[in-house]
Amino acid sequence: MNKQMIDIGVNLMHRSFQQDRDKVVARAAEEGVSPLILTGTHERNSEEAARYAARFPGKLYATAGIHPHDARNCTAHTIEKLRRLASLPQVVAIGECGLDYNRDFSPRDVQKKWFEEQVQLACELQMPLFLHEREAHSDFIGLLKPYAGRIHKAVVHCFTGSTHELQVYLSMGFYIGITGWICDERRGKHLRDLVRKIPLNRLMIETDAPFLTPRDLSVKPKDGRNEPAFLPHIAQAVAACVGKTREEVADITTETAKDFFELK
């Protein structure tokens, strides 16, 4: 029996999972990766994630939010739709929300407006925030700081930032999500050092599937698609960096995720 691990970020409603979604969930469970937290990134996607998660009570949960890439499509009804989704028992966080100045798929002022609206919603509902930040640290922190006393909990998902950025997030009480980026010998080297600076009770692990397939998998998927069954590989990479066994990392991150998302 594989150690239980929780994948806190799976884009399971992505089109690449259209043909075999149920099998992906089953493969993950076979590897001990359960429950999964499905990431909501826009209105329709958040609705689909909540609907799909409802089919697997206790095994799948979902977040409800608008990714900065999709902020340009928000309407006057968006926050009300997220509030409705947030009332469902399987929806455990607001997000993925934040700022992304790397791609600028949505204008920056629009990103900021809808990010702040979602932060306010999470504060109102006292729900965790599932956060995204890319090349926007200063504005991201500037927007969050006024809410510091009201934010229930927050995780910076797929953290790939600097020592300074990590220290700021930790000082604000945020949790940190680590992905297979740490397995990339080209881009992830600095993460291998930084992960040691994250208190283990603030660390969670995720695949961000179907993206960020670990580059050092011994058997690579033919289509290059990442999936939650690969989370133990990421846990092993984290364990090697922090001087723990994979089982210890599994135990600690699982307990942290259960507490963070208030999973029964």
Our estimate of the beta-strand percent is 15-25%
How is the biggest beta sheet arranged?
Answer: 8 strands, parallel
Query: Roughly what is the average pLDDT, rounded to an integer?
Result: 96
* Shape assignment: globular
Q: What Rg, in angstroms, do the CA atoms define?
A: 17 Å
Which ranges are low-confidence, i.e. pLDDT below 50, for 5 or more consecutive residues?
Answer: none
Helix-strand layout with pairing:
Layout: E1 5-10, H1 21-30, E2 33-38, H2 43-53, E3 60-64, H3 78-86, E4 91-100, H4 108-125, E5 129-134, H5 137-144, E6 154-156, H6 163-171, E7 175-178, H7 189-194, E8 203-205, H8 231-242, H9 246-261
Parallel strand pairs: 1-2, 2-3, 3-4, 4-5, 5-6, 6-7, 7-8
InterPro entries: DNase_TatD-rel_CS (IPR018228), Metal_Hydrolase (IPR032466), TatD-like (IPR001130), TatD-type_Hydrolase (IPR050891), TatD/YcfH-like (IPR015991)
Protein name: YchF/TatD family DNA exonuclease
Keywords: Exonuclease, Hydrolase, Metal-binding, Nuclease
Considering the chains and any ligands shown, give keywords for the structure.
single chain; 264 residues; alpha/beta; eight-stranded parallel beta sheet; 9 helices; 38% helix; globular
Task: Please give a structural write-up.
The chain is α/β, with parallel strands linked by helices. 38% of the residues lie in helices and 16% in strands. It has helices spanning 21-30, 43-53, 78-86, 108-125, 137-144, 163-171, 189-194, 231-242, 246-261; strands spanning 5-10, 33-38, 60-64, 91-100, 129-134, 154-156, 175-178, 203-205. Strands 1-2-3-4-5-6-7-8 form an eight-stranded parallel beta sheet. Helix 2 (43-53) packs parallel to helix 3 (78-86). The model has no long low-confidence stretch (mean pLDDT 96).
